[in-house]
Amino acid sequence: MLLNLFNELRAARVPVSLRELLDLLEALERQVVFADMDGFYYLARTVLVKDERHFDKFDRAFASYFNGLQSLDAALEALIPEDWLRKEFERSLSAEDKAQLKSLGGLEQLLEAFKQRLAEQKERHAGGNKWIGTGGSSPFGSGGYHPEGIRIGDAGQRQGRAAKVWEQREYRNLDDQMELGSRNLQLALRRLRKFARQGAAEEFDLDGTIEHTARDAGLLNIRMRPERRNAVKLLLLFDIGGSMDSHVKVCEELFSACRTEFKHLEYFYFHNFVYEGVWRDNQRRLSERLATVDLLHKYGPDYKVVFVGDAAMGPYEISHAGGSVEHWNDEPGFVWMQRFMDTYKKLIWINPYPQDTWKYTASTGMVRELVQGRMYPLTPAGLEEGMRFLAAN
Fold it and tell me: What are the helix and strand counts (H, E) for the chain?
């Protein structure tokens, strides 16, 4: 039982072990879920998948496995053993329901009639009292009414009188190349962690208290320690406005995730490309700016630097003095980027556009060259790769 599902998962490169398969079988034996496809899906995913990155692979293998069950006999044998089915129906049916069920000859004849009618029917049917369909009084279908029946699908309004539920459910694929949500962002950013205990001793130290109390012959000696925090220093620079307007939501999620993960976080904005000034308040960007040269001096080379932008602009905005679309820049943008590269050993560029579109914009290629190829897509896989580079010694 479920060995084929296990094989499908291994073929799809989901890291699942025999221990996890045995745990799933034990959960089924204890009837954690019963005769519920949705429940079985979530139970199997919870037990077998230990990393959210593999949800997409699991969904595909799950769908492949159940598409391979060609007949009702195989499905019932694989998922709902006959003795389970009988016991469950005996518990759930009232005396009146049992009497009505006998009008078709009992559960055995109900299932046999269903299989025969399924084999005979060649097209979709709605209404009526014989064929499998919706909205009628046949014992097989959905949205109609019959005192003893099998529901197929999810169309129409349910009457709550099916003796067995057999539904097809579509599961949305998750992919490590899709855009990030706040949860996936935090998981990816956790690769850039270096914990240290710094600052005031404000956290209760249980192990230290026990040790020092024992040393003092049982006299309570409470010990405190600094809170354990991520010691990595991160400098974020966001491209804002213009073509980046369509990426505001994901950039907000990235910013929120970074503020959660990093205690030492500094952030600034720029438009299209970095020049002689950056700012923190977009409402006062013209009047309250920080000189880029001051930023380079204030935040030392121990900071990790992440630029976030689509790198889509006129090439002259990077290569020429006066190329900025907002002001006259005395020095070309590439000069300022080179200063960043000279100051910070760990610098990357995160691009919200899909990687296969980068080749269509000349400026994107120029930026990639300036950051020595360290441009990554804003996807779970891309962000993890970028964090892995920043975390390396």
Answer: 16, 13
Quick check: helix, strand or coil at residue 376?
Answer: strand
3-state secondary structure at position 1: coil
β-strands 162-166, 149-152: how paired? parallel
- pTM exceeds 0.70, yes or no: no
Q: How many CA atoms lie within 13 A of 141 on its CB side?
A: 25
**pLDDT tens-digit map of 255-304:** 877 877 777 788 999 999 999 999 988 888 878 899 999 999 999 999 99
User: pLDDT-derived band of residue 249, with 50, 70 and 90 as boundaries?
Assistant: confident
Contact 269, 289 (CB under 8 A): no
- Whether 304 and 346 have beta carbons less than 8 Å apart is answered as yes
CA 96 to CA 168: how far, in whole Å? 29
The answer, yes or no, to whether residue 38 has pLDDT greater than 80, is: no
Q: Which among 295, 250, 251, 248 has a CA at the least distance from the CA of 274? A: 295
Helix (H) or strand (E) holding 112: helix 107-120
* Cα distance between residue 11 and residue 256, in whole Å: 37
